[in-house]
Amino acid sequence: MKKTLRKIGAIAGLMTIMMGTLAGCGKKKCDICEEKKKCSKQEYFGETVYVCDDCKSALEMFGL
Known about the structure:
Radius of gyration: 20 Å
Strand order of the largest sheet: 1-2
Strand content: 25-35%
Number of helices: 2
Order of helices and strands: HEEEEH
Shape: rod-shaped
Structural class: alpha+beta
Distance between the termini: 64 Å
Largest sheet: 2 strands, antiparallel
């Protein structure tokens, strides 16, 4: 019985660690509005920057 409880505890701990690492990697700081959002890497004027969807649509309005 104790071995089973240890295995369940180990699996639950491992799942918690895995979920924590997966949840934290989706958001970066936007280089334009400086908010922490889901960003994509873009290249503007030869420089690579992280841009969120809101700023990207605003840049597209201006033709950039």
